[in-house]
Design a protein that fits this description.
Number of helices: 3
Strand order of the largest sheet: 1-2
Shape: flat
Largest sheet: 2 strands, antiparallel
Number of strands: 2
Distance between the termini: 55 Å
Strand content: 5-15%
Helix content: over 70%
Structural class: mainly alpha
Radius of gyration: 21 Å
Order of helices and strands: HEEHH
Length: about 130
């Protein structure tokens, strides 16, 4: 199987897995027949107060770290696939190993940046 087909297949599987979750992510309220009111995404669900810029940026950072972590997971699958189909060719084995090594380094950077961002945000919130 070609890598492009494999990536397309994995994207399809992930997309079909997340589609029901995304469809039911927002609970719409019907105030009147035929009228649907969507909740304000910039309001804290617990306190019903508007979100601060720090909370919005923090949410964006968490989402981006999640997406980058998912890409690293796909790279692990791809590296393992390359190694699996290498057929004993040392060049293909090296390419698969290198992909796995760089995906591991990427995960370390992702986790490190996540810890750093949380530390900085917590320090800013407690100071302000």
């Amino acid at each position: 199987m070609k890598p492009a087909i494999l990536i397309a297949l994995m994207t399809l599987v992930v997309g079909l897995t997340l589609a029901p979750t995304l469809a039911f992510a927002v609970e719409a309220k019907k105030d009147e027949p035929g009228v649907v009111t969507l909740p304000n995404p910039l309001v804290n669900k617990d306190t019903k107060a508007n979100l601060t810029i720090q909370e919005i940026i923090g949410s964006g950072i968490r989402v981006s770290l999640g997406i980058v972590g998912s890409v690293a997971l796909v790279m692990f699958f791809y590296g393992g696939y390359l190694w699996l189909i290498s057929g004993g060719s040392s060049d293909k084995i090296k390419k698969g190993k290198d992909t796995l090594i760089w995906a591991t380094i990427g995960l370390i950077v992702i986790f490190g940046s996540g810890i750093l961002v949380r530390t900085v945000i917590n320090a800013l919130q407690t100071a302000g």
